[in-house]
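Fig. S4 source data, part A: sequence.
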Amino acid sequence: MSLPNGFLEELRSRVSLSQVVGRKVVWDMRRSNQGKGDYWAPCPFHQEKSASFHVDDRKGFYYCFGCHAKGDALTFLRETENMGFMEAVEVLAREAGMPVPARDPVAAQQADRRSQLAEVMEQAVQFYRLQLRAGAGGVARDYLARRRLPEASQARFELGWAPDTRQGLFAHLRGKGVAPDLIVDAGLAARPEGGGEPYDRYRGRVIFPIRDARGRAISLGGRSLDPNARAKYINGPETELFDKGSSLYNHGPARDAAGKGQQLIVAEGYMDVIALVEAGFEAAVAPLGTAVTEEQLRLMWRIYPEPVIALDGDAAGLRAALRVVDLALPLLEAGQGLRFAILEGGKDPDEILRGPGPAALQKQLDAALPMVALLWRRETEGKVFDSPERKATLDKTLRAALTRIKDLSIRAHYGETIKQLRWELFGTRRPAPGRRGAAFVPQAPLPSTRGSLLAVDDAATGERLREAVILATLIAHPALIHRFEGEMERLDLHGAGHNRLRDAILRHADIDDPAALREKIAAVAGDDLESLFALAHVRIAPPVREAGDAELAAMCLAEELAKLEAARGVLREIREASEDLDGLADEGVTWRLTQAADAHNRAGRAHNEDGNDLGEDRAALSAHLQSLIDAEVWVKKKG
């Protein structure tokens, strides 16, 4: 819906962003300045120890210098609470005491209907909970006792019992004045195909309420106690409230536990999740009767950057794990992956916890495999590679899997790992002494290849100068250290001198006076400090010369860090391309690499002439190098 002009601006001005965010984070009071509306905390969107998440309460915006999450109070609620836009508006409006403008009739009617369905679901949850404690629930209580689930746990997860009667719930809700259509549309009852009164969907089953991230009851799961039942577990049908592929069991509590540092564990079913939570693994979720979907993966990554998929160690569990691998490959991003705990003995988490116990399960979780290990296992386990054709088939299959990874950096790292595994499987490239066959001897590169981009290392000098400017700027403007602390902690620097300076700067980040900071640094890295400011490149740098202009210094720091990362990205891609060429060269390779070198030189000249960095030349160079790899230009062509 569209809101009146100015409503959102007034809403943002009335709401304190620090109060909204403060419900999810613990502020670093050493760095925060409440009087100025300046707040810092570890980021709630990714796991970290340093406080790189910044809230500007006066402007109403947040930004993470680690994962680059940014937005306002509405964005924060939508990202952390999985809310829709209007839901977030309504929540903030209630906090601010502002009435939300009237919505259009159709949207209002849909929202009202969802609210009605949620209320019907809540009544059903309470009805089934009462039935579990009633006389008819004895068989369910016995089952839960055999599963070692105490009453406190049953209450925590709001477990219930659906008596084996045709219209137990339906009659109860009708007696409360609930319309039959609402009961059916909530997924609680079904209409007979031949017509007649609706009948209860859940009969003779232990009931597991399913709630969304906000805690609303959206559906039910049912576990039959009849060994002859056609389905041991059933979930509610798709409704206006419930989308199986976009929901996770125990979503909200697991998200809260993961926010406190617990690792997210993904199990197969309700009882596994309940057993995990009761054993102290509170960040546990499960898909709902379907294979893991893309939307569920994205939900998991919003909770935790590297969930552990804990599956039974049998053939079915391995197949399920491999399906998740295939689904996840195109979605991978830096800091966003999966690990797999294929549990020993074909047992599920509940069985391990009831047997060997939590320590045994933790040991298996700690040994969880990365995705690349499962990918390799699928393509090699139980197979024989005793001919060039079979080896080529393996290469083709793995190459097809890697091309599905969209992130080029992750694809390159997967390629490196698989290359190493391949060498271990087939033996090293150079036969050991005494073995048959001539040792591999790379061809000497042509003169033009030796002068190509792959052999040139003078870029390191430029990187060192850029690092020097960054370090000198922080020393001249110590108030900026906290702002760029995350980037500096992760930065790879050239030489021990630069590293000593960086460590000294971060160690004394609380010093605001440049002279006092230089004195502290000189005490531990005096020679390095003197050499740094002796560089002409540093002395003429604008943020060093203009010591009073903090805004200019901040802009220059951000630009220099970005340029440094861009330049290193080019060199990483060149290095990866070089490794993929695997030491073989011919005239065609030499010519193509010469073209790449020319492109790099043109980018360098453009930077020197107008102050721009690699820019679009970098993108073109990256694409060109990737095309060389995809075309297998190192393979000798016939004719």
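Fig. S4 source data, part B ends here. Confidence is low (pLDDT under 50) at residues 428-457, 579-592, 602-618, 633-639.
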